[in-house]
Amino acid sequence: MTPSPRLVVVGNPDNRRVGYFRDAVRAAGLPEARVEPWLDVLRGGGRFHPGETVRLESPGEDADVERLLRGTDDPTRVEGTARWYESFTAATARLARTVGEAGAVLIDDPAEPAVLFDKRLAHARLREAGVPVPESPTSGPDGQPVRDWADVRSLMAGFGLPRVFVKLAHGSSASGVLAVETNGTGRVQATTSVERAPDGRLFNSLRVRRYTTEREVAAIVDALAPDGLHIERWLPKAVQHGRAADLRVVVIDGRATHAVVRTSRSPMTNLHLGGARGDLGAARAAISAAGGRWGDAMDVCERAADAFPGTRCVGIDLLPAVGWRRFAVGEVNAFGDLLPGLTGLPGSGAEGLDTYAAQVAALLCGTPNRPTSTTPITTSTSTTRTTGTSTT
After folding, report:
1. What is the pTM of this model?
2. Strands of the chain, DSSP E
């Protein structure tokens, strides 16, 4: 009989994700998963032991960790993502060496965060894998540089892109994202959650706002540009009940296991920015009515996950086009599994399990990656979530 894995979570002890994962481990009847704090790891510590299986969790929701990664005392500040990226990827590489030297094993490939957390590189990898993605002039290591608003304007005109998303290359949770629109008269406006203070500093806000002059938009872009920017075509989305709709799909070991529809009256559907969970059944019906197949939509997500074979769980932002017939992938999220209360899709093998319970069950299956469709995801006790909100 294969012994139960001894699990370790590198995360922030008070982070909700850590709590959910530890709950799932406990519900599966496994030994308690111990926590190795990111704060210790970033300060050069971190203790691991032979035979342990180590999972990396998001370093979010801790002010001291944020300070070490981004160099700011204010976690609401937008700036500092380039430093965060350099600090996080360097720490992940050091951690991988420490884990290996201790005789422990990392669940995921430590090299992949360097691609996953750079939207330009991730976009290029998806495109090269044949995954449909929005057109982008900044994609890949040879993409066009964006030094300021003038570069954005030039690229929009040169590539025939009157509407684009301008994103921080290393941002997450819609931080620093601007939905920029231009028209034939030269008018510019942008929808964003970025709040610009009188002194020019930028802050994340829970309120989506619109800037209606080019001067305002240019000031924000110029302030963001030093951290690195990614530009992609703003694809018109399908609509559900009069609201723009997309999907977050969780893929575990190559199989789409969980999906939620996100709807919003703004271009950003993130739930913490006023988005709301939509009707998944209605979305599936709309796809069928348009002559498409739900399985084809999930196949797009699984192909996107296959582009990152060393990461066992990813969250895919799936963008349905107007009419619900065609799909593109907006982003692949390394920590895209925070969907409290959501259980597995019918036929996924994760029915009755939330995203964390499904990941624990996949670990118990002992498959190295990408199980076949005949491999069930099962565990001794199913776990569901009935409280909490998603910041996806």
Report:
1. 0.91
2. 6-11, 34-37, 52-56, 105-106, 163-168, 178-182, 188-196, 202-211, 229-233, 239-240, 243-252, 255-264, 276-277, 313-320, 327-333
